[in-house]
Amino acid sequence: MEGFFGWLGNALGTVIRLIVDALGAVFGGIGDAIDAFFRGLAGALGMSPTVFNYLWLIGGLILLVAAVKAFTKRAILAGIIWLVLGLLVLGALIS
């Protein structure tokens, strides 16, 4: 009986190891893809790939969206203010 249970434990361990390795490969691939995306984005914009710079980028894009919303509501002065603020933030970030 010891041979059977040894074989069963070995088979179960092999299956568990296969599942863990497969999940690690999938999630490792996703992590690598996300990292490559953010490094490519930073490289194309000419900024260093830091969390702080990505937060500035998001803030600048939010300001540009606010400008577009103001222009669609025919608030020209507010749109110009949001647009200038957004361009200042993005202009300082992108070199």
Task: Outline the structure in words.
The chain is mainly alpha-helical and 95 residues long. Helix content is 88%, strand content 0%. The chain has three helices and no strands. Helix 2 (51-72) packs antiparallel against helix 3 (76-93). It is elongated and about 85 Å long. The relative contact order is 0.09.
What is the multimeric organization of the chains shown?
single chain
**Helix and strand string, N-terminal first?**
HHH
Which term fits the overall shape? elongated
Number of strands: 0
Rg computed from alpha carbons, rounded to a whole number of angstroms: 25 Å
The number of distinct helices, counting runs of at least 4 residues, comes to 3
Query: Which structural class do the helices and strands define?
Result: mainly alpha
Largest sheet: none
- Portion in helices: over 70%
Mean pLDDT: 91
Q: Strand share of the residues?
A: under 5%
Model regions low in confidence, pLDDT < 50 over at least 5 residues: none
**Termini, distance in Å?**
71 Å
Domain module tally: 2
